[in-house]
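[Meeting: bench + compute handoff]

Bench side (C.D.) handed over the final construct sequence. Compute side (W.E.) agreed to return the predicted structure before the next meeting so the bench team could plan truncations. Sequence as handed over:
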Amino acid sequence: MPASGRLKASEMHAWIESYNLAGVDRKELPPTGALEHAARCNALVCSDLKRSIESGEMLKAGHVCISDAIFREFSLPWVKWNSFRLSPIIWTALFRLPWFTGFSCQGESYRASRLRVKAGADKLREIAAEHGSVLFVGHGLYNYFLAKELLLTGWQGPTHPGRRYWEFGVYTTRTVCP
């Protein structure tokens, strides 16, 4: 995990890259409920980021493992300002808010992100249909938009799948899950 001290806006890109290369803290074990749900799934789907893959490994879910960049968290815009220093959390909020209105400097646009999550939902539905059940290990904002997309297509589950590490939502559809 990259250092979380104060950074200039111009240093955020390197921080994001470092964060994307980081794995999970193996001392923070998944809760029993997550392990129990994972054990009932036939397939595991995650992004291609190390922390997502390692989280899936820790859950020991599914016989089929699929890792794909389509399931990555939405990229964060960043700028080359040699500005004052703020924490990465503050910079993330400052860059994410205008992202919703179209600001995508150096990153994926909101529109492109929404199209990617729709394609990811299609892929997840196909995998669930093929294998009967699937465990998806994803990332914060992507999870929220994926949940919305699944609910729009007839799946049932919470509108917010969880915001903290190891929180989860369970989604079902009559045509796929038992």
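W.E. noted at the follow-up: DSSP finds six helices and three strands in the chain. C.D. will use this when planning the next construct.
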